[in-house]
Amino acid sequence: MKSVLALAKRNCLCFFRDRQSVFFSMMAALIVLLLYLLFLRDNLISSYPGIPGMDNFVDVWVMSGLVSVVSVTSCAGALQTMVEDRIEGRDMDVLVTPMNPYKVAFGHIISTFVCGFMMSIIVLAVGLVYLFATGCPLTAQGILLTILLTVPAALSGCTIMYAITSLIKSVGAFSGMFTTVSVLIGFVTGIYMPLSVMPGPIQTVSVFVPATQMASVLREVLAGEALGGLGMTGPELAEFRSDLGFDLGIGGFQFTPAISILYTMAVALVFFLISVMLVKRRQ
Question: Are 60 and 131 in contact (CB under 8 A)?
Fold first, then answer.
């Protein structure tokens, strides 16, 4: 276990010492925030005229999804060290040690998880300051649950991105992958635009993305108070929740928050096993 922790510690130090890596891992969140403040906010509020409290709701709705986005992009950014190690041959120092593939994968995933979790908490803290300053209704329970939910969000993000990055062999390929993920994640989680306005096939694919599932749960716990203050009831509320990604479903099956979390953890386990097989192949 000491070797696993030593590998994780080394990767974390390499990531946080590289300020450019930290900045670019936050780039997707900054892009979403700028797009929201400059363009999306007014459009979303004007789409539902005459509803008191819609401005506060839209703010917390976006912030909830933003935490889910950062849990993916920051994990991707933290893996740049692993790609550089592979290009320069430093990864062979680890692969030739007695560490088995499970320990090697576990060490990289722990460091990626720590980086993703910490960056998610930082974004959440900044978002909460903004929400408090604008008078958005929040509850202590919702904030605490949001902090706890960043754990499965970051865990799924780090395992999926580690498995994908394990196949990359050049800095150029990593940059292209990172850019693609940073752009697409905002769409599939329904932040750039509500999922309801996307084509049917895109909506179906988005539902199966763990980040979308966690965005749904995060909206439920953090934006639930603001949603209740809109005064919607019955079919109107059900349609509104579906349009804005609170309720996800495939066919007649509806995901509950518990099922969404279990699904996210199951996907994380599958990608961890895939990562182990990729490490074993390299050894």
Answer: yes
The pLDDT tens digits of the residues spanning 77-99 come to 778 777 777 777 666 655 556 66
128, two tokens: 């909460």
**Residues contacting 60, CB < 8 A, separation 6+:** 131, 136, 138, 222, 223, 226
Q: How far apart are CA 280 and CA 283, in angstroms?
A: 5
Please, what is the angle between helix 101-133 and helix 2-17, to 10°? 40
Q: Which residues pair with 250 in a beta bridge?
A: 253
DSSP class of 96: T
Distance of CA 90 to the CA centre of its chain: 29
CB of 69 closer than 8 Å to CB of 120 = no
Q: What are phi and psi of 139, to 5 degrees?
A: -120, 150
> What residues pair up with 249 in beta bridges, in sequence order?
254
- pTM equals 0.87
Lowest pLDDT segment from 19-33, 162-176, 228-242, 248-262: 19-33
**What is the CA angle 205-65-242, rounded to 5?**
60
CB 65 within 8 A of CB 189: yes
Q: Which two tokens stand for residue 198?
A: 């996307």
For 94, residues 6+ apart whose C-beta sits below 8 A from its C-beta are 7, 104, 107
Contact indicator for 11, 52 with CB cutoff of 8 Å: no
